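Reading a protein record of the kind used here takes only a little practice. The record below shows the convention in full.

——
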Amino acid sequence: MGSDGWSRIVKNALGLLLLAAAILGGNTVSNLNGDLLILATLVVFALALLTLDPHRIGIGPVVFAAVAIASVGIQLLPLGGWGGETIGGAFRGTFLTLNFVETARVLLSLLVALMVFFVTLTLSYSKARSLLSFMYVALYCNVLMGAVQFASRGTMRAGPFDYPLGGGFFINPNHFSTFLLVFIPFLIFSLLYETRRIFAGVTFGLLVLVLLAASSMAGVGLGLVVMLVSVLALAERRHVSSYAVLAALALAAIYLVGFQNRLGLETGVSQHTRLQFATTTLEGIRAYFWTGVGYGTFADAYAMFMRPEDIQQAYVNHAHNDYLEVIFEGGVLALVLIVVYLAAYLRQSIISWRDPFKRSASIAIGVMLLHSLVDYPIRTFALLFMFAVLNALLFHPDRRVKLPRSRTMEVSIGGRKVDVPFERADHRRRSV
């Protein structure tokens, strides 16, 4: 079998992994489904090793991945430095982490995410882009499940899931909303640049309706922002049919009404609670800034900094701000990694802006990064794997040419008048 045939097998295996993750990986805690996804990732990575080309990856991603792995691995070395009694595990006093097992799980999750990233990066750009087809199948599975849930007006348990399905196949409606939002830039891209406009239009309409039905204020608010940004960033073509304009206006009206209704249902309790979480987490960061408390140990460490008046019936398992939580767990090295990644993301987005598809990937990544300010969506395998694939698409080494703007002219073909697109002459030098 040739290298192209084997690469196609790797692409299909990776696509099926993304589909499985979107259905089985909607929980944030370790369970049997998560273990199966880890095992499947190892199999896909083993298949990809036969075609893995280090030159296509580049030195930058490799160095960043090595430092990220080291930042977690160093907490698992017997360096000592904590001392005192045990909190959350029997290893305190020997390791830098409060809980050796939880940090080891984080390291394993990081490794499988990097595997997905590198496998996608070594595929050809066309094959990497075709992974979106598998993601659309995953989208429809989640949308249909979400529609059933919202019609039944409650959570439900189904089949192999050991947790109630709160939105699609996710336990958390906020994370389900993030999953939906990621597809908005790509659907607008399809409406403007591809021939499958009917599929994109119908999918976009269903996505918006389910997004409004989901119980996520952040998701609904971000949805409005993502739609506007995607249209402004991708709508380069001047010729838009009147039917498309009318459909867009109708959809915008429906969305604004739903957005207003959602605002009316929201209370100030959520914002106050998130601010309280952030304040307490900042106290923990100041106390353990250099080493962190250990990745995956937030729930144990957060309790050490809670004031008596902040104690509630339910315990706090996450900071609802993933940047603060990661810095609290990983210390100064985690802060450096976040800053380096954000700088690389912004730089690559500017460099790749000439390619509308990469532009869509950049906007989709931005959705996850923004939502991480008020939640922790990437801690699910479903969104973690998508995040890895989207970054591979954005940082893919293949250079693309910006699609030229086009206009149409009316011509007569066989006695029928049709609009035929023609491209503007562009004598500027283009990269190939």
